[in-house]
Design brief:
This protein is of the alpha/beta class. The protein folds into 3 domains: about 110 residues, Rossmann fold; about 240 residues, Alpha-Beta Horseshoe (pyruvate-formate lyase- activating enzyme), CATH 3.80.30.20; about 50 residues, Beta Barrel (OB fold (Dihydrolipoamide Acetyltransferase, E2P)), CATH 2.40.50.140. It has 13 helices and 19 strands. α7 packs parallel to α9 and α12 runs parallel beside α13. The chain is globular.
Length: about 425
Amino acid sequence: MVRVHVESYGCSRNKADGEIMEAILLRAGYELAETPENADYVVVNTCAVKDPTEVKMVRRIRELLDSGKKVIVTGCLVHVNPDVIDSRVSGILGVKSIDRIAEAVEIAERGGKLISIEDWRERNPDKLELPRLWKPGVSFVVPISEGCLNACTYCATRFARGVLKSYKPELIVKWVKKALARGYKEIILSSEDTGCYGFDIGTNLAKLLDEITAIEGEFRVRVGMMNPNHVLKFLDELIEAYQDKKVYKFLHLPVQSGDNEVLRKMGRTYTVEEFEEIVKEFRKKVPGLNLNTDIIVGFPGESDEAFGNTVELVKRVRPDKINVSRYSARPGTIAARWKQIPGWKAKERSRLLHRLRLQIAHEINKTYVGRTVEVLVHGPGEKGGIKGRAFNYKEVILDSGGAGEFVKARVERATATYLLGSLE
């Protein structure tokens, strides 16, 4: 029996792709290995969003090959920079070809090599029509679309995922119902940009949320990242959908820069003022909002003044969490051709912003101490205790609790990254 292990890196969208491949392999009669050591083949489902991530992927592929494993490479790296993939691999599949994974193993077993890197114009299967492997746990990822409608000058992911393809609402609802019937309590709606969901099929994210929250049962929905330029088109409707108790009061709204000129160079079609307006409206009508944002420092042309504007924005808006990234040029992108900022300067800016974000996050989290919050228990934490998620998706570490339970917990301590509490 040929044994295959699937390793998925990067976003929750990639995690879902990995589970699709596992289900297809099982159906084809292959055995899934829990670890690479026990496998004949290892599928490395790659991420290529940043240069350091690409380096990590290349190193991992080489390690597996050097240890004698047969490797099949899938995911975004295949589209973004295929030249860095080791020639010894046994197969290469693009993100639109993951349904051919069993075929790739079969061809490799016969001594051949399947290379399928069709882009979204040539091949764009509806992944909700494909099987998924049901894994133990509280949380289940449901992809709602693939691709996006933006043209950011720094982004290479769009070369892999293509232009927006929204999945039919009835298919998404069907998968949510299936997951709930199997005991999952948390549904993660995933996409490259959930904000533009449905724009190609005459609907939107708010309408989808209404359909999902109408499903009977006690569960929570976490909405993935959404870009401000799309949210502006249906802001009131979206905020209304967020009123439902089943929707986590969690908003991942990437600003990327606090300077309008840098945003223009990035190809981000909104202003700092529009970002702040969305945040203001959400906070006014969604109490306890957990605001997450993304910021890129060291983008080509980011002056000291422009970076200062970003720092001032952070101080004004005070997000609960900021994902800070140092800009790294990606192959084939427009921004890669521009004059780059010295690495030491980008690192310095990153450190400053990182310190500021931790300070703000800690100050916000301390306001929860003494409060009682509802928590969905996930299970044992990575560093001890029992991990759960509060009503707004803040991480809470408890002293006890069973996975899948909704409990009331009193917050006793806070760090910059999580809350600590005990059951009431």
